[in-house]
Structure formats: structure tokens, C-alpha cells
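Q: Could you fold this chain for me?
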Amino acid sequence: MKNIIIKVVLALGALLSLASCDKWLGETVSTSNLTDQVIWEDAGSVDLYINGFYTYLYKYGTFGTTQFQGSLTESLTDTFKYGSMALGAKAGHPNEYVCHPEDVTADGGGLYGIWGTGYENVRRINEFIQTLHTYSKFSDEQNTLWEAQARFFRAFVYFQLAKRHPKGIILYTDLNMTNDKARSSAEDMWNLIASDLDYAAENLPEDWNTANKGRVTKYAALAFKSRVMLYAERWQDAYDAAKAVVDCGKYGLMPTYPEAFKGNNKEAILEFRFAVNGPNHQFDQDNVPLCDGYDYGGLGTPTQEMVETYEKADGTDFDWSGYHDGTIKTRPDYESLEPRFKATVIYPGCTWKGHVMENCVDGAYGSFVEYGSMPYTYGMTTTGYFLRKMVDENHVDLKGVRSTTPWIEIRYAEVLLNLSEAAFRLNLQAGEYRKYMNEVRARVNLPEKNSASDQWFEDYRRERKVELSYEGHLFWDMRRWKLAHIEYSNYRVHGFKIDKGVYEYIPCDFSDRSFLQKLYCLPIPVEERVNNKLIEQYDEWK
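A: Sure. Below is the predicted structure, expressed as C-alpha cells.
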């Protein structure tokens, strides 16, 4: 991906003399004049046009600002707590949503809705495809490669809409985006997404040459399809897509868990790479502790509930009950937990950037602040932990240099878990669906899970929660499983307040959290309903 980004920077800078990274990567190359008069006269210009679609990978991901205005969707689960009560993205808004879900209204929608942005992206992609068929004089082979990439990204954007509005959306495949159009059925929505991904998989290469390294491939399209079809509950399609990726032999798990997030390796099936001069992101700055030298980090931190999800290194469960009832107040044996905990969480007593972390009241290396006692956390933790996963430990100039950690949209580990779930749903032999999940566990030397059906799915949910933590899956998984209203209601998240070596188990919310069942399908925004005579609001929002 780095090669692609550099070309976007240089060539679009020359063509358009633009200064804003966000603009020259995704938002200004699709004007009609530029499309008609410049783009289709030169293959390199067409590549630059389509490169703008690649920015959607990170914009809708954990490092971007489109999915939930920059807030991690894990903050809508029990795994991540933003420390601010003051409203704002990466601050009080997620806390407001989990404690007052009624704030999502039929008129106001919700901050993790993307209706307007999504359709802007769809229009841009449809414009590319239509002008390709109208103006391109290039070979059929070249045109097909461009269209296959564009249709992958159309499926990618429609999926972002579909997982928020699973009962059907408005579907456009051309530029006739009239104001008055009814929403589709759920079946038609999933059919279009599957069709676009099938076209991409059938027409994209297994590998690109060096100059085009980082572009979406046949197996990236299939890997993404394995994810999408789980949401559609088309288990056979999910199974077939994931199995094709596994059987191709091109991908595998990296030897250690932290290596999986470095990018440009056999586990990264689809990634977006950043550059110091842009595009870049601020994930490090948002999450580092104050002792790293940045005053506005530590915005959100892992919860005790997430910590308690991890097994011990021998596969047994750590007994936290003494901490819950207050009979134990000494430091937990964090070192007994499995390797993914140590790679995901900055915990008291671990080493971070050469310092032993304290995460305590008045700590020099990791300081604690009680939730609600300050408007913002200013680099302090409200849970006793900081996020380590995907934060660059070698990034030291946090005030002067933004983050360049690659965003990995699809990892091989996810494909194995997708395959495992699909096989389970298809009632295939237990040995098959257990096999793929146990392959993921084997990387961190955890024993196999060979439990019976009902218990196995609980084990699978736990494994997926741990392996894919903070990668933007959990909230959406719980919605598609229809479990959020059960498990994300009538509870509060917790942490440890550590003072003079005493560990006090404390709640980090002021009121119980809740998830309303109607939130499984977000409302159609009022702007769409006002301007579209044929649109019908979903029943639960009428």
C-alpha cells in the first residue's frame, strides 16, 4: 500500500496543487471535469483516481474517524472505557450512548450511523464505474481490473451500511441516484454485496506486481466475503470463501501475536500503510499514558471486564472473585495470564518504553484518575490500564510526529475464526469447526478447546473477543448475534484504583448501561425521509 500512497501524493499534488491529505487522497479527484478530460486519458491517472477508494479501508476502521467519529466501537461494549464525562468524540459521547441509549432517536440517528457519508462514497464509486464504461479506451483486461477494485469497495461501503441497517437499504449501481427510491429487502442488499465481491474475486489477481503491491487481491475479496456472509447468515457462502483463502496456502499466522499487527507479512491479507508526511493517524497520541510525554493521551482504556476475559497461560481461568468482594487487595498475578493479554494491555508492573508501569494514584509511570473527577483524563487512566495493542512503542516524538502504524483490515486469524463459525453453523463435524479455532489458540500455546456444541460457541465467542480485541469487531458481532441487549444491559464496567499498593475494585460508570433491541437496526435519518417520498422507516423506529 505504501507504493500506492506515495504515488497518490506526488501525482495528485502535481495535478491539483492540493495541500490537505484527506482531500487529495479521497475527496477531490472525482469531479466531472477531471474525470472526463484528464483521468481517462492516462492509465496512471485512473490508478490515482481509484486509489482514493483505498482510503475507505482505514477511514471506516479503528484508526479512522468515519465509523464512530474516531471513537472505538469497543467503547459501546464492556471492553473499553473513555475516561471523559465531557461530551465529544473519544470522550463523553460513547459513555452517554451506553448509559442512555434512548439518545439514538429516529430524528437524530446516532453517531455511529454513516448514512450520508456512505452514500457519498457509493456515488463516487458508481461515478467511476459509469465513466469507465463511457470514456475508457483501454483494453478490456485493464478495464476489468479497475472495475473489480471499484466493485470491491462498493461492497465494502455497502457492508458498512448493511451492518447498521440489516433490514435493507437503498441500492444504487449507477448515477441515477434519484431522491425518491424505496429501500431494498435484506435479501437484495446481501445479494448485491455478494455479487460485487464475487466479481472482484473472479477478476482480481492473486498477487500484484511490485509497483502495485497493496492493491486488493482475489483472496482479499474472498476473505472479506467470509466476514460479510456471517452477517448475512449465509453460512455456506461464508464457509466457502474462508476455506478458499485457507486452502490457497498463501497466508498464515505469524509466530507471535504482536507480529500480526506490524503489516507487510503473511498474516496481513489486506492493509493500508501510512507515511510520516501523510496520510497518517493519531492512534498513538490518543492512547499513550501521560508519562510518554503527551498531555492528551489515555483517552480510553481497557476495562477490568476485558482483562478478566483472558485465560491463564495454561488455559485455566484466573479467579477474580476475591477482588470483586474486596477480600483480596494485593496485586493480581498478571504474569500468569496468556500472551495476548501482555501484548494488548499496559498493566501495573509491565515494562513500557523502558519504564515499569505503576498505573496508580500519583504514579510517575502511569497515573490514575477517578472517572468523573476531571473533565478529561489528560493521559491518566480511569481503569488502572492503558491500551498497548497497535500502539507503537517506538514512537517517541508524540507532539511532533503523527502515527504510521499500518491498519490491517483483514488478518488471516480472522479468516480462521470466520471459517470456524461457519462450519459450526453448518453443523459440520465438530473436529472441523474446532480445528480452525484451535489453530489460532496454538499460536499462543493455549490448549485446545474441544467442548460440546453449546459450550463451544461460548468458547468461540471468548476466543474471538480476545484474538480480535480492539480491531472493531466485537460490537458488531454482538449485534449480529442478537446478544447485545442481553449482555450489554444492567451492568457497569470496572477497573482498579491502586493507591499505596492497595488494589480497589471500583465501578467506572455512574449508572447502569443498557442496549435497546431496536438498536440492532439503526433508523433512516430524517434528512433522507424528508427528501425521499418512497423511503419507509423501519417498523421499530416509526
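A (continued): The chain has a mean pLDDT of 93.
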